[in-house]
Amino acid sequence: METKKELGQHFLINEEVAERIVEAIENKNLIVEIGPGRGSLTKKLLDVASFVVGIEIDYDLIWYLKNRFRGSSLLLIRGDGREIKLKQEVSIAGNLPYNMAKNIIKNFIFQYRFVKEMVLMVQKEVADKIIAHTGFREFGKFSILCQLYYTPKKLFNVKPASFLPPPKVNSAVVKLTRKTDIPNINDTFFDFLDKLFAHPRKTVKNNLSIDSNDEIFKKRPFQLSIEEIINLWRERWQTQ
Q1: C-alpha to C-alpha distance for 53 and 90, rounded to whole angstroms
Q2: pLDDT in tens, 181-207
Q3: Domain finish residue from 159, 178, 197
Q4: What was the pLDDT predicted at 240?
Q5: Cα distance between residue 80 and residue 77, in whole Å
Q6: What is the total count of domains within the chain?
Q7: Do residues 202 and 167 both lie within one domain?
Q8: 235 Cβ contact list (under 8 Å, min separation 6)
Q9: Residue-range definition of the domain harbouring residue 120
Q10: Of 136, 155, 178, which marks where a domain is finished?
């Protein structure tokens, strides 16, 4: 079965990597796998999970997986991980296509009430943004979105040879564990983030068009902590 470049398909063939992903999942009652592909990770999930739901966009792969795992507890759904809506609490796992990874993660972050944890394979560059701390150039809107709702951790890097065909970049497995102290924000916070990071190398003062000489406004957006950003939003944005 040939891979489809337009779907960003790089199938995991390293069993040890698949096993390490499964080991990192704590809640194994119901696991939703995004992009099962040819089933390397699926097989390991079925060994330990009470039930596995596979979300696959490729119609040909659905038929392949149905035949391979006939009689198992796998439920296959043809769908797009960027659009799937959940109705009960799950753990999310998957080797995400590079060209869709960030939007897939965003979709499930905004459904955090149903997603206790995520263990995901992504491009290393995306993993670095997910875990980036204040002061690092990688720290931006996507880092903040992930860290508002989850505690992220990079578990390990994965070489291109672990995939077929091998990608041109390195990958990494990250784990996002849902927080218990999620801040009280609303949609206007994300509008504020768009404005704050409109020009990441400019100062907060310039991005927000604020006439103030306070030290915080002399910083670049990536130099602010998430707490400082939330406070700025509450003090300077919600009152407008």
Answers
A1: 10
A2: 999 999 899 999 999 999 989 999 999
A3: 178
A4: 53
A5: 9
A6: 2
A7: no
A8: none
A9: 5-178
A10: 178
99 & 43 share domain: yes
Q: What CATH number did the domain enclosing 79 receive?
A: 3.40.50.150
pLDDT tens digit sequence for 62-119: 999 999 999 899 999 999 999 999 999 999 999 998 889 999 999 999 999 999 999 9
CA distance 60 to 7: 12
pTM passes above 0.70: yes
> Are 98 and 68 found together in one domain?
yes
